[in-house]
Write a structure and sequence with these properties.
By secondary structure, the protein is mainly beta. The protein has 4 helices and 21 strands. The strands form 5 sheets. It has a 6-stranded mixed beta sheet with strand order 1-19-18-14-16-15. The longest helix is centred in the middle third of the chain and has 9 residues.
Length: about 270
Amino acid sequence: MRDTSRRTALKLLGGGALALGAGTQTAAAQQQTTRVRAVHAVPDAPPVDVYVDGNLVLEGLEFQQVSSYISGPTGNHQVAVTPTGAGRDQAVIDRQVTLQQGSYSFAAVGELTDGSIQPLVTRTPVLSGPPRQRLAVVQAVHASPDAPPVDVTAVVESEQLNRQLQTLPPQLVMGIPESQLRFTDEGQAELTLIDGLGFGTASDPLPVPATEYTLQIRAATPNNDGDVVASVPVTLDGGVSYTAYASGYLEPPQGVVAELGNRDFELFFATTE
């Protein structure tokens, strides 16, 4: 496996406030609202359009791009994804989803060429209570079709936090099991954020201290010490929810590269405050 190291940027689709169609919702359902954003994580697909309840709500969403939130009534909604400009009848995903109050991500994952493209709907984790400004919450989605199950570890870059973690029980600092914390030879804390995440699945959200980390994506092993596939420096801010999408190919097919360009394995992030 190749070891890559790069900074990633959040890519947002502009366009201001968007709205879901009312569909066939009852009056009671329409009194409650939900929010959903679209995520393009299919490495062999061109830009896509998104239809909700038959209405075109997003155009030209590119690979590794995250849309703005779309607001609307809770309940059932028909969501379709098509290649940009192809029209509603050329949908590669056409699925009814049930959205309750809260915020959701509708991610397209899999591959277009082999027909494995599918939706993955996750609820955006939130933080509450007085400590929220000292904590961030992290969730991961495995959307790389040729990558094995992965572990995600995070090396703490803050000297002050490293000293705290060496002297205090882990549950007093972040509420995670002691088995998820170890130290490098240099005394840096290394947290196991994700353990054995398989393709097409999302991890449980995990609150962590708001600080600077180096995230390491590893091939899953019993001791969370497999080969590092990607190493990404990140700063997690307090009170912010992060969803990290592991996307792209470990070994990009030549046909995909020739048609669409770089589709190497990397992380991209969606955030919610």
